[in-house]
From TrEMBL:
<keyword id="KW-0812">Transmembrane</keyword>
<keyword id="KW-0472">Membrane</keyword>
<dbReference type="GO" id="GO:0045717">
    <property type="term" value="P:negative regulation of fatty acid biosynthetic process"/>
</dbReference>
<dbReference type="GO" id="GO:0005524">
    <property type="term" value="F:ATP binding"/>
</dbReference>
<keyword id="KW-0547">Nucleotide-binding</keyword>
<keyword id="KW-0418">Kinase</keyword>
<keyword id="KW-0808">Transferase</keyword>
<feature type="domain" description="Protein kinase">
    <location>
        <begin position="12"/>
        <end position="272"/>
    </location>
</feature>
<dbReference type="InterPro" id="IPR011009">
    <property type="entry name" value="Kinase-like_dom_sf"/>
</dbReference>
<keyword id="KW-0723">Serine/threonine-protein kinase</keyword>
<keyword id="KW-0067">ATP-binding</keyword>
<feature type="compositionally biased region" description="Low complexity">
    <location>
        <begin position="348"/>
        <end position="359"/>
    </location>
</feature>
<protein>
    <recommendedName>
        <fullName>non-specific serine/threonine protein kinase</fullName>
        <ecNumber>2.7.11.1</ecNumber>
    </recommendedName>
</protein>
<feature type="transmembrane region" description="Helical">
    <location>
        <begin position="369"/>
        <end position="392"/>
    </location>
</feature>
<keyword id="KW-1133">Transmembrane helix</keyword>
<dbReference type="InterPro" id="IPR000719">
    <property type="entry name" value="Prot_kinase_dom"/>
</dbReference>
<dbReference type="InterPro" id="IPR008271">
    <property type="entry name" value="Ser/Thr_kinase_AS"/>
</dbReference>
Amino acid sequence: MISPGVTLGGRYRLDERIAGGGMGDVWRGTDEVLGRTVAVKILLPALLDEPGFAERFRGEARTMATINHPGVVDVYDYGSDQQLAFLVMEYVEGDALSRTLSRVGRLTPARTMALVAQAADALQAAHANGIVHRDVKPGNLLVRPNGTLVLTDFGIARSALVGQLTVAGSVLGTASYISPEQASGEGATAASDVYALGVVAYQCLSGHRPFDGATPIEIAMKHVRETPRPLPADIPPSVRAIVDRALAKDPGARWPSASAMAAVARQAASALATTSQQPAGQPARTPAPASPAAAPFSGAPISGSARPPYPPVPRPTSGARGAASVPSGPPMQQQPQPQPYHPPYAAPRPAQAQPIPTAKPESSAGRQVLIVLAVVLALLVLLCAGVISFLYKQGNNAMSDRPVSVAVAQKGTADNEPSAASYRLTRQTGAKPGWNRANEGRQTL
């Protein structure tokens, strides 16, 4: 029974189980000789029963140790102890891509293409050394906190057959990324790793695997016979084309090498990153060409004005008045609407904003003037009224001073003939001649 604290090979102490797979369990351990943290992968005992498996695996471990690539996990040691075979590798700080996908669901196209490019570079380094991974899946892709990717578990699935593995979850994981030729019983090649990496990219973009089923055999047969469901509509066509070609049923129709797939994936990631940095709906901004009118200005700067400086105008040097000598050189571009010239040695002052006149409230002096005018007008009215009254009284007095003859009417004669006194009175007063009996004995005015 393997448990924490067990020491393998008298050197590697097991501290914590961190992962499990179809080939065995992975432990975080300590190299007690060098005092460093390592990853120890313990192979399943059933694999050791296969004839020649231990020798082949030991030879591939030596070959893997010769790969010097930042995207390939370093292999330190291989050994067997207590009927257990183990592989000691570099311990990578970070999470497996499978954990990231289970947490976030799916990745952006730019992020997916960046990870695919790194994984393809690592596969190319292994393929150049004659090693086929045979088990590319998110659980074997470790992502460091800085975003770099490391590919682990090279070559350990060479002798493993899907139907012979006993761990159901591991079988399902392996069958989900198996190439059609491997599912058909053919040998794995570099093109098989390219297909598996295409399945990983499909899962990162869509959030699910291309094929699911109740058993590993059913899933493997779907890889051979069926076409994956289309990727989501928001995936760019360039990214969709990369994944579709990697998932071709025919190995010859896939990308010719892992390096070729890495190149196109890196180009797509760069293009997507550049597009995401630009504002939506706006084209890329390009610097405007320099204009001759925007030449450097040697005069004093114009402060407080948004008007650009104008180039100096040549002064008259000879000839008649008003004629100026034009310096040689390319002709200046004529402005469609000439602006007033401001000499460089006398910068125009900024225009002062004129205050807007506002209505002032009436002062106390104004009110006093109105009061005085009202009093004077009233006095004039009173004066005119007095003059009119005085003139009216004078007229009455003049009428009263007119001499009027007063006489006592005398009783007339029998034939009513007026007397001389009565006649004089009527002539002066304008009455008709005759005798007025009603006024008899009265004074007539």
